[in-house]
Amino acid sequence: MAKGEIVLGCLAPHPPHVVYAENPEQNEAFSEGGWETLRWGYNRLARKLKTIDYDAMVIFTPHWQTYIGTHFLGLPAFKSKSVDPVFPNIFRFNYDIAVDVDLAEKMCEVAGESGIITKMMRNPDFRIDYGTITSCHMLNPEWDEPPLWPVMAPSLAGFFSACMPHIFDWVPRPWGWVLPAPFLVLVLLSPLLYFAPKPAGGRIELVLGANVAMLLALIPQLFLFVWFIIVILSWIFQSMYVWRHNYPPFRIGTWLGLGAVSGLFIGDLFAHFVL
Predict the structure, then answer these.
(1) What is the phi/psi pair of residue 78, to 5°?
(2) pLDDT given for residue 1 in this prediction
(3) Is 272 helix (H, G, I), strand (E, B) or coil?
(4) Higher per-residue confidence, 5 vs 120
(5) 193-206 pLDDT tens trace
(6) Residue range 8-26, pLDDT digits in tens
């Protein structure tokens, strides 16, 4: 293994209340906020990490269910549910942690040579403690894989709504424009976003953000013919990064609204040239 270096170190308080207050979708419990000062500290550290070139984070936690020696995770991934024994009502976290096994084995070896009692933990059913989960999540809260529903649901709703005037003659076309009626359908469907998965779901701001974005995405099309291209490209670009960040519900709503109107434009083009 090539030699590396420590580029940053810190002491990180890690009560499960911090994750509980963040409302990540992995945690089954839901809160109305709190612990802002500590959360802001984690957020500041997370932003700093984005400016540093590093390969792995080493979390040294005192909360493992072990009593002798220092243990290192020895499998490529650990995936399960961690329920805090002291605060089960606020921390029931469905975790999925990737492990750099080569680094862990080397650390275990070097620590053992220094006289520390060490062991590799290779039990796939081992429950990761809340200290590890809290620190890992707060320093890297992004979704590791893009969720499908924020991309597919709004765009498909817009696509099929735009096809309606081309399929059914009774759909009104105000001013000879086919998009107002399908757009109204999207507005009427937008309250369903309130029932979207947490953490953004259950917030009226999500619905408001979607409607604001839909209006701003559609109205300029009346005056600028190529506007639809800008909207679609903007939505595609945002779909590459928005899901990676812990944005507030209103901001996520604007992304969803852009997706709905992008689907509207794409559906209209499809219906015009194909149907």
Answers:
(1) -130, 125
(2) 46
(3) helix
(4) 120
(5) 998 876 567 789 99
(6) 888 887 777 777 776 677 7
Q: How many helices (H) and strands (E) does the chain have?
A: 9, 4
Rounded Cα gap, residues 269 and 157, in angstroms? 15
* The pairing of beta strand 77-83 with beta strand 70-73: unpaired
User: Could you identify the residue written with the tokens 């709004």?
Assistant: 154
Contact 71, 111 (CB under 8 A): no
Collapse the DSSP code of 267 into the 3-class scheme (helix H, G, I; strand E, B; otherwise coil) and give the result. Answer: helix
Residue 265: other Cβ atoms inside 10 A? 22
Query: Does 16-139 carry CATH code 3.40.830.10?
Result: yes
What are the structure tokens assigned to 25, written together? 């979708």
* SS3 of the chain: CCCCCCCCCCCCCCCHHHHHHHCCCCECCCCCCCCHHHHHHHHHHHHHHCCCCCCCCCCCCCCCCCCCCEEEECCCEEEEEEECCCCCCCCEEEEEEECCHHHHHHHHHHHHHCCCCEEEECCCCCCCCHHHHHHHHHHCCCCCCCCCHHHHHHHHHHHHHHHHHHHCCCCCCHHHCCCHHHHHHHHHHHHHHHHCCCCCCCCHHHHHHHHHHHHHHHHHHHCCCCHHHHHHHHHHHHCCCHHHCCCCHHHHHHHHHHHHHHHHHHHHHHHHHCC
Residue 158 confidence class, pLDDT cut points 50, 70, 90: very high
Paired tokens of 6: 């420590």
Residue 92 pairs with which residues in a beta bridge?
83
Domain ranges of the chain: 16-139, 149-273
pTM, two decimals, is: 0.54
